Task: structure prediction
Amino acid sequence: MANSHNNVNFIAHITPKTEHYQDCTSAIQEILPATRAEVGCLRFELYESENRTQLTLVERFIDQAAFDFHHQQAYTKQVFTLYQGWLAKAVDIIAIKPL
Result:
């Protein structure tokens, strides 16, 4: 396994249209097990804001290639296809790193 300095970390803010909030939540929950089973996935956790208007994914992969691999999977592409009609705005993916 790559050493931890190569790990990549992301916060993804997902803002569904109100009427599609539960659709988005369910779609992401459905891919959690498959994503967590990816060899390069170290963390993939879904959170929601207290007012239930925004979803946040906290993601950690062993390296950029593992993150890219995740986005190449059919189940990930399917969620992004669904997002096209469900989101109020584009997914905001922020790369973060530990201090």
Summary: The longest strand covers residues 41-48. The chain has one domain: 4-96. Residues 6 and 73 are 22 Å apart (CA to CA).
